[in-house]
Amino acid sequence: MALRSKKDYVKSLQDGREVWVLGQKVPDITTHTLTKIAVEHCANTFDLQQDAKERDLFTVVENGEPISRYYAFPQTSDDLEKRRQLIDRHTEIGRGQLNLTKAIGSDGLMAATVTAHQVKTRGGSDVYSKRLEEYVRHVKKHDLAVVTAMTDVKGDRGKRPHEQADPDMYVRIVERRKDGVVVRGAKAHTSASLAGNDILALPTRAMTEKDADYAVAFSIPANTKGLKLIMRPMPPHDVSAWDNPISAKNLEGESVTVFDDVFVPNERLFLAGEWQAAGLLAQSFANFHRFTGVSYRPTIGDLLIGATQLVAEHNGVAKAPHIRDKVARLIKYTEMIRACAIAAARYPHTEPPGIAMPNVVYTNIGKHHFADSFYEAVRVMHDVAGGLVTTVPMEVDWNHPEIGPYLKKYLAGNAAVPAEHRVRLMHFIRDLTASDFGGYTMVGTIHGEGPQAAQNIALMADYDINRCVGLVKKAMGI
Ligand SMILES: Cc1cc2nc3c(=O)[nH]c(=O)nc-3n(C[C@H](O)[C@H](O)[C@H](O)COP(=O)(O)OP(=O)(O)OC[C@H]3O[C@@H](n4cnc5c(N)ncnc54)[C@H](O)[C@@H]3O)c2cc1C
Predict the structure, then answer these.
(1) What whole-number distance in Å separates Cα of residue 336 and Cα of residue 338?
(2) What are the pLDDT digits (tens) for 198-214?
(3) How many Å apart are CA 106 and CA 92, to the nearest integer?
(4) 37 and 111 share a domain?
(5) pTM attached to this predicted model
(6) Which among 52, 94, 334, 433 has the fewest CB atoms less than 10 Å away?
């Protein structure tokens, strides 16, 4: 058992995986200009695990060996709080972008473990529990980067898997063999898939008996034959970090993840037809993953607060009462999310076999809140920053011998602040919220960790409304 170095991790990605970008099959994702940023970003975990300053948070000792804290499943409220702090710190280091490889992988593994235990205790086989135990040991031992592909492409959202015009709109088993199954279908928006060693696939919704073949969960290496990762392009790796302070370094990318008749061996199969368990698996993953969401989103809120305060100072308006009100609004937005994350860790539900599940009510309120008010928070920052957010000149113009001096003179704000700081801050705000990447962040805030209706469903299923109704009845004496 050993923590891997960044070098070993990067080398492990040179394994013949089938990654497509802009119509090209990428021969080596670690060197290709359109995928290199994602590899570098995802590799940061491996440096941090070895860093003396970060090691205590990023690793734990289990059975005498250091392992990634992401894979030490929380058993207590304190463990969950540490996980929250880990995600928070990891996001801070990633300039507001969490490296999801191990985070989302462990969310999926915890959900699969809880579900396999339920299958066993409800009279089913214990085979999935045993396989998962073995697989999680393997992940820890080889310090693997695992990503989770849950969201199916789904076709017509109003129809169940078996009702779809095309039967492949949810990943399904198309053949059962003695030594495993063959699966077909596609998952959408799989984060960091190109940089995962293994892809963990989970069902995305509750199923009926007729959907049994769609109730399938498994994990396979990213270079498995028939697995195709079709990525959106990332910026070239040498794009200016002056102009794009976040997206030039911290992007992980999503794929349409195609399973073109992929063989899954029995030992990596964690659900294969038990349709009654699919809903629990999807719900548990959503809850673990939303906790990841409420743990990393406050860090993005911190950036909104910091950038808004700083831009107000650079523009010379920081003391204006309406500006202070706007900064206060951002603080309230951010700290509400953080408070939900802390409360979700503080009041967990302990799920057999001893995994602390973040509190469902606080987790879902936190996720719903950050999605609901993010555009508004961004609007507040844009209002304070001014139009230069979108019209700001680029690095080459700033440094140009002929036109640069004009920009340096005319784009100055508060004389106490170098004009270059003001302009670079505008780029920071543009990159985070008003660029192609900014648009990605906006939509990701709404849909990452599930659409808002899903949080209301989870909240209403878990919240003790009868307690409130009882209080009213008692107060009325009825
Ligand atoms: C940046 C980003 C990263 C992501 N990363 C991952 C990842 O790593 N792994 C992963 O598995 N997923 C990932 N997702 C997927 C994410 O969880 C989904 O985008 C989200 O669940 C919404 O699904 P959808 O995109 O298919 O939208 P849709 O399901 O089409 O939702 C659109 C709207 O339709 C509504 N709707 C959908 N179905 C119904 C229905 N039956 N009845 C009524 N209303 C309905 C929804 O509530 C929503 O309002 C990511 C998404 C984004 C944007």
Answers:
(1) 5
(2) 999 999 999 999 999 99
(3) 20
(4) yes
(5) 0.97
(6) 52
